[in-house]
Q: What sequence folds into this?
């Protein structure tokens, strides 16, 4: 088992090292980057939605906040983007904690919790559209452009971004793999917070940690998005589409598992990209129809997601 | 200044009628099915397109098409309850919300692909009353009065008829209602369909006032949620009062600053309210 993992890691490193020499088209590289970005975002949704059972349908608020924060930090406070990435993520993590912990303490569950998250996203969208002088209104903002700069994380070659997002994802994996106790407690809290508390689990503490991690990695995804695409507007940043994509990827892959969101992201992102390319501008929105259909069918027929189903099949044999 | 504020007040009241109807439907569905109908906006949009095409192809006045749209949406609601909501509730109630979101995405984006995101209008010349130099468009007055009439009819159905009694019983306690021999599945179906039909009424009132595009639900539904929470989820009277309050607040702040800020403020107030009084202002 251990040997397998080392072998896998070795192969991954070789693949990454050989990547610049494979001469892949920038488009393929871009899809790979998007897959990993969505995997990171959806994994961080999964911490709260999958493990802790606090389903947030407005998780793109932290994504968007962080994307705007990194812009403000670089533009107004003259941070280098490489540091701004983490600072912005910390800020959005702090906001995530200050939103979710009181909601959890106030015993907002189910529909009420979901309403809070959706409303928060709507508030942010309206605010960022409203203050045109600072946030550029509904046109959004564009990141300053540098030809080539390591500290600003701007490169001509796409594969540098691939390396960055791989590093960020491994950072997440590293932290998450070490927190077995947190995962266990979150699952207990998901099943029944009151009973968990009566057994001596410090419920609020673990929810705070979960919200912190979730907000932080959603934020990292958001700042990376901003640095990579260099443009963001309120409709993308605080839109329902992004939030739903995160939920869908985790649901399709398997909620409450580590592999699930990764699987979901790698299945869905290429589908949506292919649809976008083949149908393009004439039928914009076709990928959202597929998303919706998948959301319905996977909830009906694959309650455990792809990963859960695979696990069940393998165990039966 | 006072006159401007008065004008905003009147606009707010007229807007409140729209929110009231939407929140009535949401409240009914929440009261019985114990779930937020996140597809409400999609149904509103379907109703508006239906209204638009009736006007465009057969030149039926939006108000005249009200019965057609209501019946169409009622049947749509029955179908969706029967084939999506009911099986979802049986398999996993927790997944229902996500499934409904998926459903609303499918509906909205299908319309987007079919009818393009372009704005469409139903232009009907309408007279404008002027009272003490306050301008009141007749079409909005009609909308307000129709929404009040619709709410009164809705109240009558809920409080006086047999179906209403069944719905209230199921909302109170599903298991006991079933033990008393009530067909709870049918009550679920009827209340869901009634909620959707109320979207149809709203759609007919909105069509001559607002432009029609596939994601129009995203504009009207968040305030409707706000209204529901303000008045307490599942509380009809509270919702009705809150609808007019939210409409007035939104239109006054919108006049003084801008509409986006107005919405942000109302949403933020309601979020804060959720933390401290999840049952709403008028809740017990």
A:
């Amino acid at each position: 088992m251990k040997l397998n993992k080392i072998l896998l890691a070795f192969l991954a490193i070789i693949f990454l090292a050989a990547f610049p020499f494979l001469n892949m088209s920038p488009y393929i590289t871009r899809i790979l980057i998007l897959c990993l970005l969505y995997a990171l975002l959806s994994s961080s949704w999964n911490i709260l939605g999958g493990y802790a059972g606090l389903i947030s349908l407005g998780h793109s608020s932290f994504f968007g906040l962080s994307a705007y924060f990194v812009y403000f930090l670089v533009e107004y406070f003259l941070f280098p983007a490489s540091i701004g990435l983490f600072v912005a993520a910390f800020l959005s993590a702090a906001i995530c904690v200050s939103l979710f912990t009181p909601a959890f303490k106030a015993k907002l569950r189910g529909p009420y919790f979901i309403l809070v998250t959706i409303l928060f996203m709507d508030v942010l969208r309206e605010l960022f559209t409203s203050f045109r002088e600072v946030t550029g209104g509904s046109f959004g903002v564009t990141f300053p452009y540098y030809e080539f700069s390591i500290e600003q994380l701007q490169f001509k070659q796409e594969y540098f971004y691939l390396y960055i997002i791989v590093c960020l994802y491994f950072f997440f994996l590293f932290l998450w793999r070490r927190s077995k106790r947190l995962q266990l407690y979150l699952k207990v809290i998901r099943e029944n917070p009151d009973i968990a508390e009566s057994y001596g689990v410090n419920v609020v503490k673990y929810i705070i940690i979960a919200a912190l991690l979730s907000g932080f990695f959603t934020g990292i995804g958001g700042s990376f998005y901003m640095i990579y695409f260099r443009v963001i507007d309120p409709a993308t940043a605080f839109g329902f589409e992004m939030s739903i994509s995160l939920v869908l990827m985790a649901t399709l892959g398997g909620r409450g598992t580590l592999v699930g969101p990764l699987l979901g992201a790698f299945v869905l992102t290429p589908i949506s990209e292919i649809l976008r390319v083949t149908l393009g501008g004439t039928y914009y929105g076709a990928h959202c129809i597929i998303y919706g259909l998948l959301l319905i069918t996977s909830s009906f027929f694959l309650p455990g997601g792809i990963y859960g189903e695979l696990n069940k099949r393998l165990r039966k044999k | 200044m006072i006159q401007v504020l008065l004008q905003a007040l009147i606009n707010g009241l007229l807007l409140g009628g729209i929110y009231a109807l939407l929140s009535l439907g949401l409240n009914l569905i929440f009261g019985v099915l114990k779930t937020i109908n996140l597809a409400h906006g999609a149904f509103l949009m379907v109703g508006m397109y239906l209204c638009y095409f009736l006007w465009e192809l057969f030149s039926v006045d939006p108000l005249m098409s009200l019965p057609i749209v209501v019946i169409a949406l009622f049947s749509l609601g029955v179908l969706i309850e029967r084939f999506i909501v009911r099986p979802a509730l049986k398999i996993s109630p927790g997944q229902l919300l996500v499934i409904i979101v998926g459903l609303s995405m499918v509906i909205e984006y299908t319309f987007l692909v079919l009818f393009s995101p372009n704005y469409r209008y139903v232009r009907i010349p309408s007279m404008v009353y002027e009272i003490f130099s306050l301008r009141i468009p007749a079409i909005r007055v009609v909308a307000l009065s129709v929404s009040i009439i619709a709410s009164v009819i809705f109240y009558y159905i809920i409080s006086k008829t047999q179906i209403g009694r069944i719905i209230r019983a199921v909302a109170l306690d599903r298991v006991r209602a079933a033990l008393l021999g009530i067909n709870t599945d049918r009550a679920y179906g009827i209340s869901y369909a009634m909620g959707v039909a109320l979207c149809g009424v709203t759609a007919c009132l909105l069509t001559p006032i607002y432009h029609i595009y596939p994601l129009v639900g995203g504009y009207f539904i968040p305030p409707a949620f706000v209204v529901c929470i303000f008045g307490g989820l599942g509380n009809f009277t509270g919702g009705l009062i809150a609808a007019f309050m939210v409409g007035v607040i939104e239109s006054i702040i919108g006049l003084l600053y801008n509409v986006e800020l107005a919405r942000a403020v109302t949403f933020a107030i309601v979020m804060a309210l959720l933390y401290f009084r999840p049952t709403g202002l008028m809740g017990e």
Notes: The first helix of chain A runs from residue 2 to 18. The first strand of chain A starts at residue 141 and ends at 142.
